[in-house]
Amino acid sequence: MAAAFANVVKALPEAAVESRYMELSEDAAGEAVLSMLEGLEARDALVQQLESVTHLKASVTAWHCAACNRLTEFLNKDCKAEGHTMTKTSTLKRFWTCDHCNARVTTLGVRFPANRCSRCNNPSLEFTACSMYRGPKNLKPAGGTTGLACKENLFATLEQHPEMGKRTFR
Fold first, then answer.
1. CA–CA separation, 132 and 53 (whole Å)
2. φ and ψ at 152, to 5 degrees?
3. What angle do CA 14, 17, 19 make, to 5 degrees?
4. Quick one: pLDDT at residue 167?
5. Which of 1, 83, 104, 162 has its CA 20 to 30 Å from the CA of residue 17?
6. What InterPro entries is this protein classified in (predicted)?
């Protein structure tokens, strides 16, 4: 086909072909990158601010039940249903991590945690003060090597599966 139209169509060099809107697309791509970087910078500033906070002073409103002598961050429905007198107070909130299982614990109005860790129930009461920032969750990669439906456990046919191919279904 190229031989039939060789005298009509002339091949242009690759460098000579340019789009009319090349500059606009480059500007748009540059603006998209800058806006993404601005968002990441704002997130980093927030992370730095949260990492510096280890306790909240008087900005936490808590509820104190006079009958149970408990201080809770939210209004306790059981105490309210039983008719206990609940008073709203401002208190100090501190953040802790358990030294055994790394669970996060918060305390209201006390200097140190007085109860055991709710996750591991370790009686040693060893906690370390931490910041308000929890950090990103550790996400497993998409092609993870664990779990029933991971990439390594998916086979096209039943005979290819090392466990199921041996079995006969009747």
1. 6
2. -75, -20
3. 135
4. 56
5. 1
6. Mcm10 (IPR040184)
Give the residue among 69, 64, 60, 58 at the shortest CA–CA distance from 88.
Answer: 64
Kind and range of the H or E run holding 70: strand 70-72
Closest-CA residue to 87 (of 57, 56, 59, 62): 62
For 112, the token pair is 């140190």
Q: Which two tokens stand for residue 55?
A: 């306790």
| Cα distances (angstroms) measured from residue 167 to each of 96, 153, 158, 161, 170 | 51, 16, 9, 10, 10
How far does CA 76 lie from the centroid of its chain?
28
DSSP strand E in the chain: where?
55-65, 70-72, 86-98, 104-108, 127-129
